[in-house]
Amino acid sequence: MAPTFVGYPKVFVVDAEGKPLLPCHPARARKLLKSGKAEVLRGSPFTIKLKYPVSNPVGSLRAKVDDGSRYVGIALVNEHTGEVVFRGVLVQRGDVVRLLTLRREYRRGRRYRIVRHRPCRNRARQQVVPFPSVRQKKEAIYRVLADLAKIAPISGVDVELVSAGVKNPALPGKSTREKVLNRDGACVLCGSTRRLQRHHLVPRSKGGTDTPENQVLLCAECHRELHAGEAALDRRGKTFAWVAHAVLGKAYLLALLSRFGEVRVAEGWQTKEWRESLGLPKSHTNDALSLFLPGGPLKVFGPEYLIWPLRRRKWKNNPTKTCEEKNGFRHWDVVRAVRAGKVVFGCVRSLKARAMTLRTAKDDNFEVSYSKARLLHRPRGLAYMPA
């Protein structure tokens, strides 16, 4: 059954002692604020704090994570009522490898510049596993869930882990060879059924996978002509490049997620079946909320969020970030702006003399005037922006 989408969001609630409670309706939150029984705790996601403690809180939420290399889908679902109270996409950083390489070159240059030909002192140092570029992505997922656990009662996590080289169970056959043979049946170029061979669309030496999606059937003659450049094949293969950071560090991610309670693991083909049973298109948030479907229908509240993990250590004397605040706005502030009669939400990317640029859901350099923008939320550690 297709889920029901509701326009208004749920309001997160925390009691006077800081214990997270189940989210409430915006009308109820408005009454609590007007009567003086609650106060605003944070702006995004909108959270109120009660002025009295709650002795026996009832209910819990389950976090859903669709792991990926560049984008990670995250959702909070009440499995008892089928309500999806939060959904968002975590935008992973992609500059860690470049920054580590730059730091290594700086240190190497300083070593040879100050003390001539001094050898490296840390040659016996062992490599940390997983690699820093992979570890920071897994820790970013934990940072988001730990931040949401402060305002939502999370009792467990469901996660879809990316697997490379796993055989597709939808194709008949036990081995990869049988799956490719049953799928194609003959040479994909000439249709011959004699002397059939498997051809990797992306070579293994260049990061190609050994899955049926990266293989086709060719006869011996067409296979020779294809490698000689005498024939062409209009098909795209599958590589390990896009899943490398998602596959590495799976054990590290599961160890981090186990701190929130029980962890249930699903594979990609299972998520696809659950999502198609709901009639939802392919997206990171739809994959996340489709994990381990509850018994009843789903009811999705509020907009989808874009989440950016902010750097904890700022680069001092950065020549490109000379202006930290202008007209009351700072970098990464979540603002509401109006341009050409259209309302947009975004995070401040750069502060210029007459205007500022925003990161929006569709544009990374959306320029607006200072007078047409209004500050909504100043993030700390994580920037939540409604898409």
UniProtKB/TrEMBL annotation:
<dbReference type="GO" id="GO:0008270">
    <property type="term" value="F:zinc ion binding"/>
</dbReference>
<feature type="domain" description="HNH nuclease">
    <location>
        <begin position="175"/>
        <end position="224"/>
    </location>
</feature>
<dbReference type="Pfam" id="PF14239">
    <property type="entry name" value="RRXRR"/>
</dbReference>
<keyword id="KW-0540">Nuclease</keyword>
<protein>
    <submittedName>
        <fullName>HNH endonuclease</fullName>
    </submittedName>
</protein>
<dbReference type="InterPro" id="IPR003615">
    <property type="entry name" value="HNH_nuc"/>
</dbReference>
<dbReference type="Pfam" id="PF01844">
    <property type="entry name" value="HNH"/>
</dbReference>
<dbReference type="GO" id="GO:0004519">
    <property type="term" value="F:endonuclease activity"/>
</dbReference>
<dbReference type="InterPro" id="IPR002711">
    <property type="entry name" value="HNH"/>
</dbReference>
<dbReference type="GO" id="GO:0003676">
    <property type="term" value="F:nucleic acid binding"/>
</dbReference>
<keyword id="KW-0255">Endonuclease</keyword>
<dbReference type="InterPro" id="IPR025938">
    <property type="entry name" value="RRXRR_dom"/>
</dbReference>
<keyword id="KW-0378">Hydrolase</keyword>
<dbReference type="InterPro" id="IPR047693">
    <property type="entry name" value="RNA-guided_IscB-like"/>
</dbReference>
